Amino acid sequence: MADHVVPHFQNTSGHDCIEIGAREFMCIGANPPFDHPHVFLDLGHEDQIVCPYCSTLYKYNPSLKAGQAEPADSVWVPAAA
Question: Is residue 79 part of a domain?
Answer without folding.
Answer: no
